[in-house]
Design goal:
Order of helices and strands: HEEEEHEH
Number of domains: 1
Number of helices: 3
Radius of gyration: 17 Å
Strand content: 25-35%
Structural class: alpha+beta
Shape: globular
Strand order of the largest sheet: 2-3-4-1-5
Largest sheet: 5 strands, antiparallel
Helix content: 25-40%
Distance between the termini: 61 Å
């Protein structure tokens, strides 16, 4: 009985953690490339930026939003594309850092 309860708790735990990261990968294209490969934490995800591309291989659903776009732009500069956002939504992200 204890083993069944433990197994059930483990299954529920794994299912709940899977929901938080269900959307997975987010890719962003920068207007200006970064000088060197760098890691940036923005909107709950770790982005690895190299050249004019930043990729978060594991990202919560909240990352692929206008707020997530703004958070990354603040760290790396203006973006040309971000995840599944439309061109109009990416334009709302602002120009990033100065």
């Amino acid at each position: 009985m204890k083993l069944q309860v433990t197994a059930l708790a483990a299954i529920i735990s794994l299912a709940a953690s899977g929901v938080a990261f269900a959307d997975g990968k987010v890719v962003a294209t920068l207007k200006q490339p970064v000088a060197a490969k760098t890691k940036v934490v923005a909107a709950g995800a770790v982005f690895v930026c190299e050249g004019s591309t930043c990729v978060a291989t594991v990202a919560p659903a909240r990352t692929d939003t206008t707020k997530g776009c703004k958070a990354l732009a603040k760290e790396v500069g203006a973006l040309a594309a971000f995840g599944t956002l439309s061109t109009e939504d990416v334009a709302k992200c602002g120009v990033g850092r100065s």
